[in-house]
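Batch 3, record 17
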Amino acid sequence: MIAEIFVELPTQQTNKPFDYAIPEEWHDLICPGIRVAVPFGGRKLLGFVTKIKANSDVKNLKEIDHILDLEPVLNKELLVLGEWLATHTVCYTIAAYQAMLPAALKGKYEKRITLPEGRSVAEYSENMQQLFCNRISISWDEAIAVVNMKELKTALANGDLEIAFQVEDKIKVKTERVLSLVQTQTQLKELLDSTRKNANNQIKLLQFLIDNPAEITATELMNQLSIPNDVIKKFIDQGILLAKQVELYRDPFAMTSFEKTTHMTLTAAQEAAFDSIAKAIEDETHENFLLFGVTGSGKTEVYLQTIDQAIQQEKQAIMLVPEISLTPQMVTRFKGRFGERVAVLHSGLSNGEKYDEWRKIIRGEVSVVVGARSAIYAPFQNLGMIIIDEEHEGTYKQEESPRYHARDVAIKRAEHHKCPVVMGSATPSLESFARAKKGVYTLLNLNERINQRAMPTVSVVDMREELRMGNRSMFSRELSEKISDRLLKKEQIVLLLNRRGHSSFIMCRDCGLVVQCPQCDVSLTYHRTSNQLKCHYCGYETNVPRLCPTCNSDHIRFFGTGTQKVEEEIAKLFPKARVIRMDVDTTRGKGAHERLLKQFGDGDADILLGTQMIAKGLDYPNITLVGVLAADTSLHIADFRASEKTFQLLTQVSGRAGRHLLEGEVVVQTYTPEHYSIELAASQDFESFYDREMMVRRNTAFSPYYFMTLITASSEDQFTAIEEIRRAAIMLKDGLSKQAIIFGPTPSPIAKINNRYRFQCLIKYKNEPNLLEILHQLNENLGAKTAKSGVYLSIDMNPNMMM
Ligand code: ADP
Ligand code: ZN
Ligand code: ZN
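Prediction for the assembled complex:
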C-alpha cells in the first residue's frame, strides 16, 4: 500500500503529494487525514496523508517513518476544503492544511545525535561517555555545547555517531495523575492503627482517605494535605492507592462560573428572523441570510436561539465574531446559555489551550464554538448553522497566506453540510448588502431596538468653527460641557479616538481640505521618510504643500493625535475624572483587554478612552455619552473603503450609548461635517449611505462592481522585483479578456518592507474564468527561480489592504 503525502515544506517544488510506502504493520492505521513523519531529502518531515493507493510510478519508494495520529486530524470534508482553499486563494496546499489546524499540531523538529545500532557508549572517549551519560541519543544542541565541532564532524564522518531527525507534536496532551483507593475502609483503619505515631504525613493521608474515599488528583491531594509526593508514592507502591494518567483540558474558563440563562420571548421582528433561519436548519437547506439589525436590536438573542434549534437536531454550530468582540460579555452570554457545550477560541489563548478546545470539538464533546476567524475550520461533523457576527469586519480576511475570507469558507462549508449561514450586522458591507438586494442572500430585518429604546441622538460638531472661535483644544465646547454634566451625574462616558492604521494625511485646519490625488478619488498619504505625499493606488507623488491650495492658509499639517495626548488633556480639563485608556499599548498583556473592560463595567472609571477596539460589543447600562474626537481620521486614509469604514465605526460607537434605561447622546467632532458618511452616520441612515456609496464605487470601478486581485512582487534587489512584476503583468494582459482592467506595475504603497523592494499590479474584473489558472501558472514559473533570486510573489484575491 502506498500513501500520498504532502510534506510540511511550503515551497513551489514541494507543492504536490509524494508517494511513500506504508509498512505492513500499519496498513490498518494509516488513512487520509493522519499526520506522519517521513524521510525527505536527508531529514525527516511531518506530512499529511491525503490518499491511499495500490500502485506508484516511483521506484525505490521510501517508507513512512512513524505515525503521529491514531485518528485523522482532518476529515474528508476538510481535506477537500484544503484543496479548494489552495486553488482559490492561490496558496500551497500544506499552508491550507496548517491554517485549518491549531498551531500545536505543527511538527516540532529536533535534530539529535545517536550511537549507531549495536554500539555501546563504553567504546567511546571519556568526553563522549560523559556527554551521553548512559543515553543512546542526545539533542544536537546539547552535543555542540560540549563537543567541539571538529570532533563531532570526524565522528559523524567515520560512522561513530549518527544524526537523527525527530518529528513530534509541538505541544503534548496534558495529563494528570488521578488516584483511587484499592483497599477497603476496614483495611485502612487497620493500617492507621498499626502506623507509627510519629509518621505524621502517613497518618494524615490515611485519615483523609478514610473520610474521603472518592477519586482525587495527586496535585489536589498534595495541596490539600500539604504532604510531599513521596508519601503518595509509597502508598501506590504498597498497593493502597492506584494511580492512572488521565487526559486533562487546559480550560481558561475553568474557574469561572456562569449563571445559567434561558431564552427570552422574542419580539415579532426577532421571531420572523428566527423562523426563516430555523426552517433552513430543519429542512437542511443551504441558504445565506443577511441579518440586518441596528445595534441593540437583539441579533445576538436570535443567534442564541437558532443555535439552540440546531443543537436540538443534534447538529453543531459555529459562531464567528471579530477578535475584538470576543469580550467577556460575549463569552458570558454563550456560556450562560449553553454551558459546557461551548468551546471558545480566541487569540488570547495559549497554543495548548487552543489545542484543548479543538480536541473537545473533534471529539464531539461540544456543540458550539464561538471564535475569531480561524474557528471557521472547527472540525464538526454535522454542522447545523454558521453565524458571522459583524460580517462587515475586515478581520475576517486573513492577511497572510492563505489569504482567505472567512465568509467564503463559511459558505463553502455550509454548502457541504446543507445548512444556513447567517451574517449579521448593523452596517453590512456593501458587498453583502448588494447581494441581499439582488436576492443572492435572504435579507432579514430588525429595524428597532429592543423595547423601542430610542437610538441615541447624535450631534455633529464642526471643529473648524471651534478653531475660528479660538478653541484650540481637542474638545469642542459642546463635548466638554456634556462630559462635565455626566461626571456630575456619575454616568459613564466613552471617548473614541479614531485612528486607523499608521498612515497620516495632510489637512488644512482652516478649510478642512485634505490633499487628494489628481488621478484617483483618494487622499494622498504622507510619507515621513521622503517627506512626500503619495497615492497608494496609482503611484502619483508630490511635495507637501506649504500653503493650502484652496484657501492659502498655512495651518496645513499632517494629522495624528495619540490617545496618550488625549489622556493628558483630559487630566487638565477634568482633573477629577477617572480614566481608563485602551489602545495597543495598554492591552498588550494577556487578559489586559478583559480586565480593563471589567473595571469600566464595574464602575471603577468615569471615562473609557480608546481606539476603535472599544467601538464594539460594549453593553453597559451606565454609558450615556459617546464622544468621537476626530471622525475624519479614518475618512482620509488611502483606501477605497474609507467612507464605508468611517460610517461603520461611527454607527458602531454610537450604538454603545443608551442601550438600557438611560438615554444616550453622541457627539461627533469633525472637520468635514458635510461629508456624507458623517452626515448619514449621524442620522443613522444606512440605506441612504449605501445608495450614495454604491454610486461612488460604480464611478470609480471598485468593489462590489468589480472584483479585484492584487499581485505583489518583492525582492531584496529592486530590479529583480520589477522584472518579475513586469513578467506577471504581461502574462495577465495576454491571458485575460479585454474587459479586465490592469493597473500597474507600480511601486507598492509601502515600497520597502524589511529591506525588500515591493512592486504591485492590481487587476479589476467582472468575470475572468482564466484568472485562477494564470495565477497558479505565475507561481509555478516562478518556483524554480525563487531560491536563486530570492524574489517572491504574493497573490491576494479581493484584498482588504493595498499595502
Ligand atoms: P444586538 O446583538 O443586535 O446588538 P442584543 O442581542 O445584544 O442586540 O440585544 C440588546 C439587548 O436587548 C440585550 O441586553 C439583550 O439581552 C436584550 N434583548 C434581546 N432580545 C430581547 C427580547 N426578546 N426581550 C427582551 N430583551 C431582549
Ligand atoms: Zn484651506
Ligand atoms: Zn492616484
